[in-house]
Amino acid sequence: MKDKTKEWFSEARYGLFVHWGLYAVLGGEYQGEKTDHIAEWIMNDKNIPVEEYRKLAASFGGEEFCAREIVRQAKEDWGMKYLVFTTKHHEGFAMWDSKCSDYNVVKATPYGRDVLKEFQEACEEYGMKLGLYYSQAQDWEDPDGLRYGSDSRKKNFRRYLDEKCIPQLQELLTGYGEIALLWFDTPMEMTREESGELIALVRSCQPHCIISGRIGNELGDYLTTGDNFIPAWPLKRDWEVPATLNDTWGYNRYDENWKQADDILRLLLKIVGRGGNYLLNIGPDGRGRVPKESIRILNQVGRYVIENGEAIYGTKKMEPYPYDLDWAQLTAKDYKLFVHVLKPRMRIELLNMANQVKGAYLVRDGRRLSCGSRMICEGDPIVEVELDEELRHETSYAVCIELAEKEPIFEPIRG
Asked: Which end of the chain is more exposed for a tag (fewer CB within 10 A), N or C?
């Protein structure tokens, strides 16, 4: 990004998405019928009438919710650098004390507290960048908000923009301190002019706020990929993968298809190596409890991230290595290549790497390791790092190879 004040995004690499709204009360089921789609879309998928859905607010207790603890864990235990919270999802319910709509968490629920204010205060306490998710086009509660799969020709979308969307964005941008990121979603039929209008509003209130790719019309500050989809190669712009730990964003009591922590770590390193950010989600239930499996997975991944932060934060995209390594992922900084060893190895061997190496060390403690570069008998270059006996039986550690050249030099496969 050209704006120096936005460089934090390119260096952060790892963030937390928090999906919490009225859909958490249902937990993936309405009138005894389970949804087989993402839980936060249950109002649309099960065609729940607006008046029926609004009644969920009376059951939104959030008794065990603690924004401060979520932020603390994200910062101290999980190694994340920014947090994005769903202030208003497609259901149209505001998770802050909105002045232009009483359909909000303060006025309509027994919880009665401003969730966003609690996140703001916690993020300021822990030095966490705060981002806000806001569904700018879809609003299933407002009669003129768009709705996927519905005919919008009779809707007065301009009225919705003027009377709800824009006033609520003004509240968010002026009442909750520094907003690092505005995460828009599903632009649907919005015109380039309408997307631009919202961008101008953000810039006028918070000049340094980054705008996600889903503002629409290719006007975002960075590219947002499809949910859980990872580009196969490095991209020219900054980019981010929004992703889940199971198969849903909002809480679903029936979704037990949890990813393994080792798989999440490999995905994180793959994304980082290609120059992207990983925005990983949790979905608290109606009482505000983060699923235990989410915490277990993130704790395990977090231990690696915190221990090997040098090899993750501030890394840059690199040219693809010509071989597919099933035992490692690679990340890079200027004059450094980091090898993330994910399976037991006798030594690190990087065939067709033509750099001159100056040294190598174990990232977690700085321990020096023997290394060198040579030509093998087939005429190809190779870089090797000898591993201590104890490391040969370990998994999940990072080794830094110090390079004489600024970039890794990977030669094409020949022969």
From this structure: C
